[in-house]
Amino acid sequence: MSPLLELRGLGVHYRTDRGEVAAVRDVDLTLEAGQTLGLAGESGCGKSTVAMSVLRLLPKSARVEGEILLDGEDVTTMSWGRLRAVRWAQASVVFQGAMHALNPVRRVGDQIAEPIRLHGGKAKVSDLLDQVELPAAKARSYPHELSGGQKQRIMIAMALACDPRLVIADEPTTALDVIVQAQVLGVLSRLVAEQGIGLVMISHDLSVLASTCDRLAVMRHGGIVEEGPAREVIASPTHPHTRALAAAFPVVGDPAFRQVEPDEVRESSPLLRAEALSVDYRGRGGVVHAVKGVDLEIGSGEIVALVGESGSGKTTTARTLLGLRAPTSGRVLFEGEELPRSAKGLREYRRQVQLVLQDPTSALNPRHSVYESVAEGLRIHKVPGDEAALVADALAKAELRPPESFFPVLPHELSGGQRQRVVIAGALALGPRLLVADEPVASLDASVRGEILALLLGLRRELGLAALIITHDLGLAWSIADRVAVMHEGVLVEQGAVDQVLLDPRHEYTRRLLAAVPSTTP
Amino acid sequence: MTSIVWQRRRAAVGSTWREFTRNRGGLAGLVVLGVVVVLALLAPLVTDASGLDVTKAAGQRWQSPSAEFWFGTDHTGRSVLLLTWWGSRISLLIGLTATVLSVAIGTLVGVTAAHFGGWLSAGLMWVTNFFLVLPSLVLAIALSTVLPRGIGTIVLAIGVTSWASTARLVRAQTLSVEARPFIERAKVLGGGHVHVIGRHVLPAVLPLVFVNTTLTVANAIVAEATLSFLGLGDPSMVSWGSMLRAANLHGAVSQRAWWFLLPPGLGVVVIVLAFTLVGRALETVLNPRLRGDR
């Protein structure tokens, strides 16, 4: 019997203005029914292109070569009618970004039923919802009434609607919080085991793949660099790229990933302090208490991680600490003095505390060169001295060397990691004492995450720079923080030294968070 | 350091120009515009303005086109070619100045409304909507009857009534730019309103304003012709609109004097078409999303 899915010498080229660009080169993969195959790689490595080629969902500019055998039948030579019959009935896709893949003006039940009507299937929407562990009443909801995890489950239910034998899940959990991610992964694993379908799962996160997949293929620059049983690939990677990917997702509790020297000398004088900080939003549905009585302290030269799910109020806390938003009650003290409210006072404060945003691509004005972006703060504050020398110094501190060669470069000519370094250099140019970093590596590729984190640690070592790192990733906190503060629904439920909080959690919520973290060591 | 910035800007202008020249319609429009503007500027040097004086008319009334009068003569015996030539000066002058006024008001209102928000934004948008729903021609007529006759009045009447759509456009663009994280970064760096608007918002909004300008010029020229045709222009000045008005009043149609109607009419069509072509071409160059397969 032929395997469920077999790719033979698959190559995909895109026609662009600059001629043909090879997105995928010479990929061979096989998948049997009841198996799960993980496809790992960084952005732009061609993993999504491989997935979309299976159902011929690529744009017109793509040229496909090689064979794509679905149950022994070549997809590339199928007639249009046959392809339509195969789509969804034999193989279906859980698309990336459930937030945007659902039609916002139709009830989700109707959207799940759509493929059933088109293919004349017999499945019932309520049964499908049951399979993904949602109550049947949710069929009458509109997408905006559901949470991210619920939407993702609706997408899975939709993919299962016509009893496909193959499901392709493209980054099914990327935008989800750890606890929800664990639930969605659980649903997927159970479906594979119970119904004997084949699952191809695409992700940049090796730990997600490790906890769900039997076999793993690692892609880079359009080709597969390593393939084998998931445990073996992760336990003993042979290709350096696989090793880099594995190292980018630190395991909580593993001393090998702890980058902070335990006996590093630390001053403990408090730098920034929040006392009984509360922030309310006046929304359409009344007042929302985003932050409820938070007490937080960051000592000079200390790295504190603020951990929590999305919507837990951690970003609001950070914005209030930066003075971008006035607290409803409570106060923020910098070196023992309350934050000024006047525009002039706040401007002075900005020289002390700087922000590093999540996505460096949008945090830099695309029209400004690196020099202009870094010099921006210097010009605002009219910092005396040779501007070019100060910019060069800041770039060098952010390890962009030689700095002069980066001066005329525009952001789009840089890689993601370099852009984040430019953002950091722009903050460093003002000589701040504290950096607030909002998910500083979440939008970066795995291989550069480690570099940026090492940079933050190096800055602390050399400049005594304190940092408040906001993240949903406990592994990141384990890797570089001195102290961790766990936030849940606007309240700090637990804070303390990293070893203490992450290895011996007191609060029930911290335990749940830790239990949900996918692990590369199953 | 600034030399690098200038070098890059020069390169950017160069690539914009190359992209623009690939659009044949836009290039044709630009050539037509260039010729018309040069001719309009040269008019006092090449021709004799005294020919515009009714008392010094050189020809007979209603003469059809001939070797002496290429476009024939009007009801007073003046050369239609000369009138059209001089008329282009007024049409272009009013079209351009009214546009500058309209775009300046629109940009100011749009950026202010989007940047500051709150009651100021609400108030400004209320005024903008008022100007949008009011028929601008009626308002312009009312304004030019109240104010003293003259070029300034016409410019004011057109400029003050046509800025509302620009304001809406600029406001929408400003809102989308201000939502980008680099604005937040600029604020954290300590940048105030002037810094955020001057360094980040305006440079991102201006290309759009520029495109909008070329399209507004076309509208302003039509508006000027309309107002002059209705007799609200400066009676001492010859413009294409006032020529059409004279032709209408003095029965050019019953005289079968097509040569008095066609030149100013075609003048308006050609100029408006040229500005529109240039504007559309600029739009595709500056907004790559509109760039389809040519």
Describe the structure.
The complex is a heterodimer of chains A (522) and B (294). Chain A is built from 20 helices and 20 strands. By secondary structure, chain A is an alpha/beta fold. In chain A, the strands form 4 sheets. Chain A has a 6-stranded mixed sheet with strand order 6-7-8-3-9-10, with helices on both faces. Chain A has a 6-stranded mixed sheet with strand order 16-17-18-13-19-20, with helices on both faces. In chain A, strands 2-1-4-5 form a 4-stranded antiparallel sheet. Chain B is mostly helical and 294 residues long. Chain B has a domain at 16-45 and 79-165 and 207-290: MetI-like fold. Helix content of chain B is 74%, strand content 0%. Chain B has 11 helices and no strands. In chain B, helix 2 crosses helix 3. The mean pLDDT of chain B is 83. The chains are: A alpha/beta (522), B mainly alpha (294). At the A-B interface, helix 12, helix 14 and helix 16 of A face helix 1, helix 8 and helix 9 of B.
Comma- or semicolon-separated keywords:
heterodimer; A: 522 residues; alpha/beta; Rossmann fold; six-stranded mixed sheet; 20 helices; B: 294 residues; mainly alpha; MetI-like fold; 11 helices
